[in-house]
What we know:
Blueprint (H helix, E strand, L loop, with lengths): L6 H8 L13 H21 L9 H23 L10 H18 L18 H4 L5 H9 L6
Helix pairs in contact: 1-3, 2-3, 3-4
Amino acid sequence: MANYCSASDVQVALGYQSAFDASSRPTLTQVTQIITDTTNEIDLYLNSVGITTQPTSTVILGRLSQACKFGASAQVGFGYLNNAGSVPGTLADTYWTRYNEILQEIKNSPELYGGAGSTNTDMFMSNQVEDGTYTEDEIDDLYLSPGFNI
């Protein structure tokens, strides 16, 4: 799959004045590898919730692009901007926190990323709360149960 962000996205996010190239620190090659690794991790999270092809929705791709920018920028910050380690309040730490929040969002709310198209046919209507068939908590439990595959 294609990367969700570019080196120029990371450049802008970190406030670099010039583009990454062969002589910059980090180099363009290093930044591109970090972006590829970040994209692969995002795809791993998507795959874990049953999304095995890259989403085509511009809204979803925008969110994944944002995740990639956060993750890659954090890693560049940790590795090259003397932000080694997670120091609260640093730009790299802020980006790292946001990146991990989006990864958890993928895991906890896959329907936001197109995961609602699962092969599971156990769908529960919201009117079942109104007619007394289920409570809202019971419906949540049905969706969150181990046997329900998204």
